[in-house]
Amino acid sequence: MIRVKSVIVFLVVLLIIGCDYIIPDVDFKKRQSGKKIKPVEVNTDAIVAQGEQLKTLFETQYKPLEYKNKKNPFVSVIDVYKENLAGGASVGDNPLENVELEQIRLTGSLSGEVGNVGVVQVGDQVFYVKEGDKIGKNSGVIIGITPNEMKIRQVETDIFGNIRTVIKEIKIVNKEDNL
Known about the structure:
The chain is an alpha+beta fold.
């Protein structure tokens, strides 16, 4: 028993002494004094402008979505997939609610006292929309109209019934591309 203890003590001492030779001594004061590091320059004006733009967007245009738990945990995934494939266009007062967002083209925008108004085209029909209007099959709501684009927040449901919110952008179309 004494021999085992002495062997363990000998190995611990050997380990401590051996590790001392492996680790080199480093003088960090000498390493740092040779090179001066230039601080990174940050364009704070752009960051502040983006922050102000986001604040104004959410102060004036933010409307929380109504989340409903549409997912039934006892329904088969295959049944949900078949329902999504068989789902047709819903009939409503707004004809833009029956159209996919990919079919909608932003052809212009108007600014006035009322706010920004977007001019959208679906096929041969032209519609005028404003912020807050519902658009698209997935319960999309227009949250912003600028001279060059229109932002739409919509709720998407995947084949498993999971719901997520997505912001889509529709860019303005040039006249040459429209022909």
